[in-house]
Design goal:
The chain has about 230 residues and is α/β, with parallel strands linked by helices. It contains 7 helices and 8 strands. A 6-stranded mixed beta sheet has the order 4-3-2-5-6-7, sandwiched between helices. A two-stranded antiparallel sheet has the order 1-8. Helix 1 runs antiparallel to helix 2, helix 1 packs parallel to helix 7 and helix 3 packs parallel to helix 5.
């Protein structure tokens, strides 16, 4: 499957479900980005939500935080009707030590359309999510094959917990999920670029959908670009 970002004049009619995966390890509190790296990630994701709400009202967005494990900050919902809930989930995100890309990718897989997906808290969490969250069936196993499935993974470090994330990423990509990877920090040496490029999907020209970004302003601009629909070609 090939795809590209649609130009303003070529809008994809296919809605998207985007799972945004955010590193919550202690290094995200580094103050080389003011006030810190995590604040930059929150600002960029908030901008993504704003654009989705304004331009793509049928899209859905979910949030996952990860460190040595992964947790659902918010199941996929419409940014139009649940903007404040998504924003509050970002602001209240709390993590711990370690960095586990595999756990984040596997949890995202469970909450994308057509997944089998009982949320990580088990049956009780699923029942509560069905009551209190607008999931439109994305997190409880009902099919919605019309949605293009996307993952955006942001990290300022290297995978050091859990199994091989490349295996999980390959399974997701074979299922039609498009994965964007973003490394942030003071230097590309802060992240494992080789691994992130292997996890990321490829553009039609063979280049990986991976970026290293060294400041908050560029990160926000990148998420503005990622908010646009991808046109499958």
């Amino acid at each position: 499957m090939s795809y590209l970002h649609s130009a303003n004049s070529i809008q994809s009619k296919r809605p998207e479900t985007v799972m945004s995966l955010i590193d919550l390890s202690p290094s995200m509190e580094e103050e080389d980005w003011k006030p810190n790296r995590l604040a930059g990630a929150i600002k960029a994701n908030t901008r993504l939500m704003e654009i989705k709400a304004a331009r793509h009202p049928h899209d859905r967005m979910g949030l996952i935080g990860f460190w040595e494990k992964a947790t659902v900050l918010h199941s996929p919902v419409s940014p139009v009707t649940h903007f404040n809930n998504l924003r509050n989930a970002l602001k209240n995100a709390d993590g711990g030590y370690g960095t586990n890309f595999t756990a984040a990718l596997e949890l995202a897989e469970k909450h994308l359309p057509n997944s089998s997906g009982i949320p990580s808290g088990g049956l009780l969490s699923k029942m509560l999510a069905d009551i209190f969250c607008e999931t439109d069936g994305f997190a409880n196993g009902r099919s919605d094959s019309g949605h293009l499935k996307r993952i955006i993974l942001l990290t300022d470090g290297d995978h050091n917990q859990g199994g091989n994330p490349v295996n999980t990423a390959n399974r997701l990509k074979k299922a039609g999920v498009i994965i964007d990877c973003i490394g942030i920090g003071g230097s590309p040496r802060d992240v494992n670029e080789t691994l992130l490029k292997q996890i990321a999907s490829q553009n039609p020209d063979g280049s990986p959908r991976y970026w290293f970004i060294g400041d908050q302003e560029k990160l926000v601009k990148t998420y503005e670009s990622l908010a646009r629909h991808i046109q499958v070609i």
